[in-house]
Specification:
The protein is mainly α. The chain has helices at residues 10-17, 19-35, 90-100, 139-147, 154-186, 193-223, 229-269, and strands at 2-9, 46-47, 60-68, 78-80, 105-106, 122-124. Residues 107-118 have a biased composition (Low complexity).
Length: 270
């Protein structure tokens, strides 16, 4: 059994465990700290944060993090590494085997026996090691290991989720606005046919791209791991910007035409 402790800020402990539990832990650690002799080799239970030593909420508290139970593996597992026709001298062989057997213990010759042209050498996993043998040149396995993303920080993910929901709501509002603008331009008989057709086509293109960006963002919020949130959030933001910039001219022209029609109607009524 192997235990691990770490230091955590009081404010972070509150967020993780709740204020009541955090205050109880803080008082307990403060009591332990007060009992420590000045010449004790025991690491302190309470520390002032070097950046904000006067802030209580930033006080560093020594807390238990996790315990690891290591079970001894009594069985041995062996694998063979095939070198092919490559000729290696002593130094090259040591270099290759070091890379291939990181975390492993090199055993004696395997059951198939060594070969001068590149036979096999047995490798047995060290009982206490968690490393697994990885064949040299196994780029597929290496790629899979390299491509595993680190889990996103919980605070960052929650912040991105809130931003994504707000942005999706804004995109939905712009899509509703686009429908109204489409109806307005379609029914505007004063606007010339080429201009009206061009506006409607451009408006439709922006609506489709904005709808797609919003749907992808909503899907990531609902079902995704959060790894694509920032990328999809930026994409949706760009689509909204494109829509706003494109429709500003349409709105102005439509408003001018409405004003002109209203003026003409008033003169007729007079």
């Amino acid at each position: 059994m192997k235990g691990e402790e770490h230091y955590i800020r009081l404010c972070d402990l509150r967020e993780k465990e709740g204020s009541a539990a955090a205050d109880e832990i803080f008082k307990a650690k403060q009591a332990l700290q007060d009992e420590l002799p000045e010449d004790s080799d025991e690491p302190p239970f309470i520390l002032k944060h070097p950046d904000l030593p006067g802030c209580k909420e930033w006080t560093l508290i020594r807390t238990f993090k996790e315990a690891t139970l290591t079970k001894k593996d009594t069985c041995s597992r062996a694998t063979s590494l095939e070198m092919g026709p490559v000729q290696l001298d002593g130094a090259s062989t040591r270099s290759v085997m070091t890379q291939m057997a990181h975390g492993l213990e090199i055993a004696g010759p395997g059951a198939s026996g060594p070969s001068s042209n590149g036979g096999s050498a047995g490798i047995t996993r060290r009982p206490s090691s968690m490393a697994l043998p990885l064949a040299l040149g196994d780029q597929a396995a290496g790629s899979m290991l390299a491509d595993i993303p680190e889990p996103m920080d919980k605070k960052k993910k929650n912040a991105l989720l809130n931003q994504a929901k707000t942005k999706a709501a804004l995109a939905s509002a712009k899509l509703d606005e686009a429908k109204v603008l489409n109806e307005e331009i379609s029914g505007n008989e004063v606007m010339s046919e080429p201009i009206r057709t061009g506006f409607l086509k451009e408006l439709n293109n922006h609506s489709e791209s904005l709808q797609k960006a919003m749907d992808m963002l909503n899907a990531e919020v609902s079902n995704g791991s959060g790894g694509k949130l920032q990328e999809l959030l930026d994409e949706c933001t760009q689509k909204i910007t494109n829509y706003v910039q494109s429709t500003n001219g349409m709105k102005k022209m439509s408003a001018v035409i409405r004003l002109h029609i209203s003026s003409v109607v008033e003169q007729i009524n007079l």
